[in-house]
Amino acid sequence: MTDTDLTAPPVIEISGVSASYNSHPVLEDINLTIHETDFIGLIGPNGGGKTTLLKVILGLLKPTRGSVRIMGKTVEDGRCSVGYVPQVVEMDREFPIRVWEVVQMGLLGCRKPFQRISATERDVIRHALTQVDMLEMEQRSIGELSVGQRQRVYIARALATSPSILLLDEPTASVDPQIAASVYDMLAQLNQTVTIIMVSHDMNAVSAYVKTIGCLNRTLHYHGTKEITEEMAQTMYECPVDLIAHGLPHRVLSPHVHAHSHDHNGGHTHD
Amino acid sequence: MIEALQYGFMRNALAAGILVSIACGIIGTYIVTNRIVFLSGGIAHAAYGGIGLGYFLGVSPTIGAIAFALVSAIGMGLVHRRTKERSDTIIGIMWAIGMALGIIFLDLSPGYKADLMSYLFGSILAVPTNDLLIMVVLNAIILTLVILFYRPLQAISFDETFATVVSVPVDRLYLMLIGMVALTVVMTMRIVGLIMVIALLTIPPAIAGLFVRDMKRMMLVSVILSILFTILGLWLSYSLNLTSGATIILVTGLAYLLSYAFKALRKHPA
What we know:
Chain A has 271 residues and is an alpha/beta fold. Chain A has helices at 50-58, 75-78, 99-104, 119-131, 147-160, 177-190, 203-209, 230-235, 238-245, 255-261; strands at 10-21, 24-35, 39-43, 65-70, 82-85, 165-169, 195-199, 212-217, 219-222.
């Protein structure tokens, strides 16, 4: 796997972004340019602002300072090019909705209301479901599916928006390792044409599949490479703790770090 | 029941029951899946302010209730959307203020207020033909909006965040939904009274939700159940000489308990 092509055109430009919840700062002066077909893994401790950064990119949270551009446009115009895959939550189960209808949501926005679903759009839905291997389940209701299946349905929904960029929030937080591996294989394949930003706790996956790693703990440490630098590790102590706890292959860490972090295991939590 | 239908008031009662059931089943499904039962109860009680205002100004209390319900619905809807914490407290406050306003308006209005109790406890046996007409119009509005906006409404109900990201106008659709809740509440008030509105709005969809996992079917089943319960309750109240609204609610509530037990038994047979 090669590092990202920095000469590729930027798809997301985040400059000087700060954000806070109830005047409690969560993000501070984030600068990040994401290039076409990058696959960036965002890691960091819980409460470090990973999900908040996704919210800012999607325009769900207004930054207190700074700006975000998607495909050179404002967030409101540019997010039509973004496919968003949220975390699977248990509450979804009770809602009366079929798999097909969930994926169909991907076609809702950025188009006029009242339009009937056209034959081409049905093909888009079918194709998205095929990509995640869920086509036979299209008439099932969401409550009948396992967590892993629901996760794949949400990925299909994001794909139905025909995105240039995929934003995934903990895509494998609650699925077993085989399904996680199939999700990552699929993402790696999509990555040939689609830029991917993935928030994850799954360090094995991050090290094996992503092209670049960003470490977020209120501030962002990102060098456009896959290496966790000593500087990252030192300034963001909790990041490497998380790494070791998840049994990250050592090659990703700089030599200084893992020598003294080896005795850490556990202590991490999932949100 | 058949011989009872020779009375005009019985025919009106039957028509009202069916008309209200249509709106109740459809909008009730949204209320249950969106978890806005408390908010809907708030709208029902706040609408009492409009009934008082109607009497006070000498206009139809039903028109007053519609106006008041719509205004309080928008207010409560905005509170529900904008304040992240304890919106239920504010809705509870608005609920009480609306009710209190209604009582004060009625104090200030001269004359005898004969059918006041009917708004509190319902009076399906005293629905004038004019009100039937209003119900037809309100049903037409609700059906048209739900058919036109079925997919975006389902989207904001299921996953508001994703709907926002794909640029669905979530806020406007949400207020429209709450507005439809307000219209349905006013209609239902006629049948079972504002105190028991919430039962007829939520129980049929709750039963449907036990057995179907599809929104359109849930709506259809709710409408059919609601019609069944209303007619059965009406017949029981007629033959046993009981208060109609309360009888309908008891029939509905009993049906829920039975369905729940049936579902539980089927899942874990003894």
